[in-house]
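User: Hey, quick favor. My workstation is busy. Could you predict this chain's structure for me?
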Amino acid sequence: MNLSKIPLIFVVCIIATVLLTITTTSFITTQAGPQDDIEPFLGTSDAIAGTLHQPEGVAVNGSGNIFVADTRNGIIQVFNADGAFNFTFSTADNNPNDSSLFWPKAISINSTNFIHVVSTYGNVVKVYNNTGEYLKTIGSPGDGSGQLHRPSGITTNSTHIFVADTSNNRIQIYNYSGVIVDTIP
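Assistant: No problem, here it is.
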């Protein structure tokens, strides 16, 4: 079933390690993860293309590609609009100055198809282009202005990046250059 023309809601199920698609007509399909209810995939430390281990974030780009923050595998997995596996990017690591992710938990794609990923235990946001090429890191670990401690959510609009800075109990707002512009509260 081609999902590109149907209004959709994507749901990440952490316990069952699947990505579900729910259409406005309540048609539910498993997009990624186990296809068998008897023996669900529980994940391993070695990421297997197209399988998920505790996915916690999902976003769709303008072409209908589905980007999943595969948290326990430490990577981003990409599926096409039909749910077929395309590619992965990043590696599970904690280097703030490269493409690696440490517990990717949330993901957002802006109107220019830049992919913003919260690296929760890395305490930063990583930015990639639509093919998964690493572009830059936003924020740094800490509790000062622009610093993050266990961020867990992210969204973008046409001009800003909003990050749920969970352990600092605030929302940090950055411009697309990565400069902090405001904090709530």
